[in-house]
Amino acid sequence: SYQVVPSHDVRKHRDSNFSVGDGSVLLPFSGRGVPCDIDCTSAFIRVEGNGLLQGFVILYREQERVATPVPYPWSVFLCGNNAAVMDVELLGAWNGIAAVGAARHYVARIQGQPLNIGVFVDNTFDIGRLENIHFNPWFSDFAPFIDYQTTYGRAFVMGRSDWEYVFNTFAFAYAIGYHFVERTSGSMNGNFLGIGMDLATNASVQVDQ
């Protein structure tokens, strides 16, 4: 597995016949075309209490590269206390990482290009942490593929969280960078330091509470 967060620019490959051969790569195929948004709990990998996923590229080889992207389940779903994911790259993911009902979750050193939602946090009743996350269109920036992301994509979606610590995060080319939403369990409060958003076509920060 990768010892540090991997980063690959594969934009020049217009088809799926390419590989990332310098470390451990996971290839999801199931769930192609099945709708999945913030209330979806389907996932390629579920990390439960005290579990850790670390040191992988998650590469969607059957994701579109030029045409409008198709949905898949969450790449990683943290669903238990102290669940963590570190040093992971997401290439062609529809939805990246969800932390729901995962008190004290830890999401760190994540890179790549999730297309619909990058990170979603909800129902967190003890401090969660998001650190050193960087989303950039390294999987594809061809149109109309990228047009979906800049029209509908959200890099960070924050539901209910009691003290979310967010540190050194960045995203490029989404409709909304940081979206704060009201959920049935409430909204969030937290500490945000070193956050950035570039080419947000709707809003860098949007609050709907």
* Quaternary structure annotation: single chain
The dominant shape is globular
Largest sheet: 12 strands, parallel
- In DSSP terms (H or I, runs of 4 or more residues), the helix count works out at 1
Structural class: mainly beta
Approximate strand percentage: over 45%
Could you tell me the mean pLDDT? 94
Could you give the count of β-strands? 12
Taking all Cα atoms into account, the compactness measure Rg is: 16 Å
H/E element string? Answer: EEEEEEEEEHEEE
**Range of helix content:** under 10%
- What is the CA–CA distance across the termini? 40 Å
Low-confidence stretches: none
Concise summary:
This protein has one helix at 145-152, and strands spanning 25-26, 43-47, 52-59, 74-78, 84-91, 95-100, 106-113, 117-122, 128-135, 154-158, 161-181, 188-208. By secondary structure, it is mainly β. The mean pLDDT is 94.
Task: Describe what this molecule looks like in 3D.
The protein has 209 residues and is mainly β. Helices cover 4% and strands 49% of the residues. The chain contains 1 helix and 12 strands. The chain has one helix at residues 145-152; strands at residues 25-26, 43-47, 52-59, 74-78, 84-91, 95-100, 106-113, 117-122, 128-135, 154-158, 161-181, 188-208. Strands 1, 2, 3, 4, 5, 6, 7, 8, 9, 10, 11 and 12 form a 12-stranded parallel beta sheet that branches. The longest helix has 8 residues, at 145-152. The chain is globular. The mean pLDDT is 94.
Which SSEs are present, and which pair or pack?
Layout: E1 25-26, E2 43-47, E3 52-59, E4 74-78, E5 84-91, E6 95-100, E7 106-113, E8 117-122, E9 128-135, H1 145-152, E10 154-158, E11 161-181, E12 188-208
Parallel strand pairs: 1-3, 2-4, 3-5, 4-6, 5-7, 6-8, 7-9, 8-10, 9-11, 10-11, 11-12
